[in-house]
Give the backbone structure.
Amino acid sequence: MEFMKIGDKSLKISLNAKESKLYGLDESTEINTDDMKGSFSKLLSRAKKEVGYSFSGERVVAEIFNSKNGGCEIFLTYGEKEVDGRSKNNVKRSTNGISIFSINDLNGVINIIRSLLSKGYNGKSSLYYDNDQKNYYLLLDEISTKNPKYYFMGEYARQLRQNSQGYIKEHCRCICKKDAIQIMFKI
C-alpha cells in the first residue's frame, strides 16, 4: 500500500491486488455501503499516520480506478464544509470547473463531438486515452448532464468526478491538450 499526498486536500492511495481484495475495493465498488465506509475509515486512519493526511471530518470524495497489477488506485479529495451552497467563510461557491467523461470507444468520442458542436458548445476541451483501460477521457468546461441540451452525453459516456483529473493526467496519453472538440472534428 502506498500513500501519496497531492496538494493539501488530495491523496492518492495505491493498493496491490491482494490489498484491493482485502479491502473489497475496485472500480465497480459501491462506496456508500456500511462495509465500504468501514474500509475507507481504516484507509484514512492509516493515511493520517503515514503521511499526515487529515480531512478534519469534512466531506471526502473518492474515485477508484483499477490498475495494471490487479489492484486499484484511489484518489481522495476533501473540500470546505458547506452551508446552503456557501463555504464556511460564507462566500458563494464557484461552479466553475470541468466535467470529465469516460468514453468506451472512438465512435462514442466522434458522436459526442458532433453533438456538442451541433448544440453550440464552444468551451475548452481536452482528450486523453488510457492504453491500459482502452478508454477515452473527454474533459470539458463544466456542463450539466441534467440540462436537456446535454442529455445525449449519457448515451455515449459516463461522467466522472472532477478529482479523477489527477489520474487521467498521470496515467493517460494526451491526444489533444486544448481545443479537442474543434481539432478532432477536422480530422
